[in-house]
Design goal:
This protein is of the alpha+beta class. The protein has 15 helices and 18 strands.
Length: 429
């Protein structure tokens, strides 16, 4: 225990986040989780050396009501995305790859929330969110630090069943396009995968797939070849691709083979360009947060109200509203509509005229700032800090499978903050 705790105080989620500086992480358990396969021995040490701020030693607490509010928002978005009227409107000007539909829903959607004054606010949606396997290992490596710690639930799925849940998810994606139970060979595709910050997660997924008898390979899209109605990696035919690319529509030159094989139906891909077009373009947030625009869709009034309460007001940046948005910039956060990973995002109160010119020249949205909540964290023996946090819900077919938090200081999540990084999320009153 790194702070003086009043043992008679109510151990609510809010109180724990603000007052309890306990370190819950059992490093030995985490090492065992990360290195459960003989070929992963040394992974924990490598992460500690090369990614020292990947994992936080604490955990984050939310209430059952916050969990339910996030699930309601996610279901409302999913219901809307399934409507033909939404799909027709969104896909009308989407790239060619997004027009292709083989029936996949898309694995590991990530819905990112701030808990502004305790109320979940959806900041953005990602359709190939990273970190799920790492967060499962992290959640399994927690211990209750003292008697003040209340009973906790790592909702909504039990940790023991999540790996099987995720395997079943990939099988469902496969069966949407194929008539066999599962693929024989799956490839995890990303740009220079060994150089990715979350590369350790690829190794954990590789272990998961190979435990079932599947062959799993990791590759850059430029290593793929398409011929004879098959997608090849070297001399191996790839049946399925777990897509981790940020080239969301397979438009870059090195994605040509993947683009061609996907369009021909010669490989099963998840998540697909269509999923990104339907969910993840940040311009959607402007519609989702507007009751007037939502009224154009046959969505239940209760769902529209849920979206209005749970999504900060968002606006497309255009020459017509540029002066108004500049005047209000201190209350706004500016994001590229097709961006990812906090790249080229700006708080309005930090904007210069030069950057403002770049924003006006590109496709940006302006989102009303929803301040993140904070977590009181012990960093070293006698050092503590209040770190910002966001909550990521990993989602499949509109249902939350796992929560994770990211703790950070600065403008955006960064994995560079001492005491910060991924933290498991537990539910208590």
């Amino acid at each position: 225990m790194s702070a003086t705790i009043n043992m008679n105080a109510p151990c609510t989620a809010e109180w724990l986040n603000k007052q309890c500086a306990c370190r819950f992480l059992d490093s030995a358990l985490l090492k065992a989780e990360l290195e459960a396969s003989p070929d992963l021995v040394g992974l924990a040490d490598e992460i500690a050396q090369t990614r020292p701020h990947l994992f936080s030693a604490t955990m984050v607490f939310i209430t059952p009501a916050q969990r339910d509010q996030m699930q309601d928002i996610i279901r409302a978005v999913s219901d809307l995305a399934a409507m033909p009227s939404w799909q027709n409107q969104v896909l009308a000007n989407a790239p060619a790859a997004a027009q292709i539909d083989f029936g996949q829903d898309g694995v590991f959607f990530g819905y990112d929330f701030h808990l502004s004054e305790g109320v979940p606010q959806l900041i953005e949606i990602n359709t190939n969110a990273g970190g799920a396997m790492l967060n499962l290992a992290l959640a399994r490596a927690q211990t209750a630090c003292c008697k003040a710690c209340p009973p906790l639930t790592a909702a909504p799925k039990t940790l023991d069943e999540l790996e099987n849940t995720w395997l079943a998810m990939f099988e469902q994606e496969w069966q949407a396009q194929r008539d066999t139970p599962r693929p024989r060979r799956i490839a995890i595709i990303d740009e220079a995968p060994k150089q990715q910050y979350l590369y350790p997660e690829f190794l954990l997924f590789q272990r998961l797939f190979e435990k079932t008898g599947m062959t799993c390979l990791l590759a850059d899209p430029g290593e793929l070849r398409w011929h004879d109605q098959r997608l090849w990696l070297g001399d191996t035919v790839i049946d399925m691709v777990y897509n981790r690319l940020t080239d969301f529509y397979f438009e870059q030159d090195n994605s040509q083979a993947l683009r061609q094989a996907f369009a021909a139906g010669d490989v099963v891909v998840t998540p697909t360009p269509r999923a990104h077009a339907l969910y993840a373009d940040k311009r959607h947030l402007a519609e989702l947060s507007s009751p007037e625009q939502m009224a154009a869709y046959p969505l239940a009034g209760s769902s529209i109200a849920t979206l209005q309460a749970g999504i900060p007001s968002t606006f497309l940046v255009t020459p017509a509203n540029a002066d108004e948005l500049w005047a209000q910039r201190r209350q706004l956060f500016f994001k590229p509509a097709s961006g990812y990973g906090s790249k080229a995002t700006y708080r309005g109160d930090k904007l210069t005229k030069r950057v403002w010119g770049e924003i006006l020249a590109g496709g940006y949205v302006a989102q009303t700032i929803a301040p993140p909540s904070e977590r009181y964290v012990a960093i070293e023996a006698n050092q503590t800090a209040d770190l910002k946090l966001d909550i990521r819900a990993y989602v499949y077919r509109g249902e939350i499978q796992l929560f994770a938090a990211r703790l950070y200081s600065g403008q955006t999540t960064n994995f560079r903050t001492q005491g910060g990084g991924f933290a498991p999320v537990y539910i208590t009153n």
